[in-house]
Design goal:
The complex is a heterodimer. Helix content of chain A is 79%, strand content 0%. Chain A is elongated. The termini of chain A are far apart. Chain B is mainly alpha-helical. Classes of the chains: A mainly alpha, B mainly alpha.
Chain lengths: 66, 508
Amino acid sequence: MSIRGIYELYRDGFRRMTLGKTLWCVILVKLVVIFALLRVFFFTPYLQGTDEQKSRTVTAELINRH
Amino acid sequence: MEPIDTSLIDWSRAQFALTAMYHWVFVPLTLGLGLIMCLMETVYVRTGKEFWKTATQFWMKLFGINFAMGVATGIILEFEFGTNWSNYSWFVGDIFGAPLAVEGIVAFFLEATFIALMFFGWEKLGRKTHLLSTWMTVLGATFSAWWILVANSWMQYPVGMEFNPETVRSEMVSFAAVALSPVAVTKFLHTVTSSWVLGAVFVVGVSAWYLLRGRHTDFAHASIRVAAIFGLIASLLTAATGHQSGVDIARHQPMKLAAAEGLYEGGQGVGLVGLGILKPGIDWSNPSEDPFLWKLEIPCGLSILATNSPEGYVPGIKNILEGGYVGEDGLPELSAEKKMEMGGRAIEALAASQAGKNEQAVRILRENFPYFGYGYLKSPAELVPPVVPTFYSFRVMVILGGYFIALFAGLLLVGKRIGRWKPVLLAVLLSIPLAYLASEAGWIVAEVGRQPWAIQGLLPNCAAVSKLSACSVQTTFWIFSALFTTLLLAELCIMVRAISDGPDKESA
């Protein structure tokens, strides 16, 4: 299949979508919620800094919890 | 010793369980329904009958809805690893990251490439090329499952790794040992075949609904026939792989098996509890009375399940805590107290190695590392997982598994006569939620049964969890509950509308 053929496959496919449009909307809303809301406000990585700093933090945690 | 709030552990576990269980609503239907539509399209390509093309397109539409609703829900689990389980995430190093990366690169791109050809290519591709796209999409989804299950299996049976005390990370020494560990292979086979069962139950259930409404009867009968043959084979394979899973658990996680069976004192020729009611409020680390109110036992069943021999020895909770029985390596098992002592020594050696007393400390750490996680436990009783949910979930899974075998066999036996029996059709329709129940129950056995471990023997939850405020985890738990419920309701609405439209309506 040529590049043009691939382009037309996607173009016509997206144009003819009916139910697919609703599903894409759901996917986009979900991605926005996951990456712009949950990731930013609720899921900041607990370990910060360089690998060495992370290693030191975890080492201290693992030793202190004994 | 710095105490960790148990409610933090409980809420972190609850949040992870909620996310995983929600994600798992979508995965098995993708795997099961995907293969059924592959089979139908193969029939279409071989026979050239438009009927099978219409049938394939209808089930493909439902597959697409499920796929779209499920996509990206697994990403939240990865966020939770970094935020709520940061010690765990650091400790596992690249062993956990490697399978997930392979999953992302190979399987995800395989799915992403071919799913467009599958949905958009009906008029643009040749029949065989389109069929190839459909198979490759489903193969991609199955490969995804493989790598995720490899990562999960490593937590249950950590192999192919070496612990680096300098970085406090586990390093992979054999990718093959991780990717092809017997636990990973069995888990993959059991999970995928059980997903095929769920897909088959979904197809016969939806078809039964059409028969109840007197709509699309030819389509419904044909779909039931394909799904019942496929489902019967899949459910028998699930039973066989489930047996192998039992053997693996007996070898590598005997406490999980003891919890699933409510077995306090083991022995030789142990019976399998087919049905049973546990007495409430039992202290499973030291019960003062018989823990069963009532039970129906299959003689020697558990010994056969666990060891393939009616006289095989199966340890109970008491035996595992006290040790002394011959383990899988042919040596006497250590007691829980001894393992805790060795674990404590390993952690102290880790501290010493960090303080500069390197060589001797590292040697002591290596000698005792297999029991590293035991050093965090305060008493042997902490090694006993929650028996009640594990015991009942195991029974729900197995009994429903048996029901599905009977369901598919019955559907094949009665053939088109099923259209006359409305109560039976209703029962078939109501089997759809039962398939989801069985699937989730299987994961409860697998995950609740291996508590208190995040990584078996090496890291308990109390050491793996991030030191967050329990209140913040509780808040996100309720936010997720609301979010997931909304998304699930949205999926149900879209799915029900698509089913209601039926196979005649063209929409994609």
